[in-house]
Amino acid sequence: MKILIIEDEPRAASQLQNLLTKSTLDFQLLDIIDTVEDAVVWFQKNTIPELVFMDIQLADGLSFEIFQKVEVTAPIIFTTAFDQYAIQAFKVNSIDYLLKPIQQKDLDAALHKFSKSKNLSNSIEPNILKELLGSIQTPQKRSGILVKEGSGFVQIRVSELLYIYSQDSITFGITHNKRYIIDETMDQLFDSLDDTKFYRINRGQIISKISIQKIEPYFNHRVKLSVSNPRDQEFIVSRQKTSDFKDWMNK
């Protein structure tokens, strides 16, 4: 079976591949894609796969946006770290989902469901798609964040954060004078932040608008940022996001 994985977290993509290898599915992995933009191009240029595993939140937006830009007739199994996101809508449309971190038994059950019903479809009615997009795009934004300090935790104001980055599977939050460890993933954090004030410039960095001091051209059509309290970090906006980042800065 030819499958496609659309997932922006390398660890999650690798875990899914390992679980698929342990399952009874005889599969050929066609590709791993991490952005809405690249997924749209892939579907335009390639034969539709027999099954797609699709993360909801990708590097440049929500995977539901793919359906607004290109027709996808392959059956979809969605993956998500957030079970509050209109999950019932998936069931209404006969689309299965897997809650991260994905467990072998849940993957096997989803594959069993797929094998029993070859007419599974990704088709989402317009009103359901609108509901799904709205439920994810308009969550309540947080004003505080719990961080580790010593052997315990303290809460800091989100407005204090200059940027957030991930390194060696650890998430760090930087203020003007301190670095904190945050016990959440980059996906979880970015979804809960005000996207008019914070921007995910690449897979491993989220930047606050107030921290940006200078924007300079960088090779391969990217841009490089100078920020407050940079420590040992370089801040380079990914090629796919450069145009959108400039629009965000102009707002």
Automatic annotation (TrEMBL):
The modification 4-aspartylphosphate is found at D55. Residues 145-251 form the HTH LytTR-type domain. Residues 2-115 form the Response regulatory domain. The keyword Phosphoprotein applies. The keyword Acyltransferase does not apply. One of its GO terms (molecular function) is phosphorelay response regulator activity. Keywords: Phosphoprotein. This is Transcriptional regulator. It comes from Aquimarina atlantica.
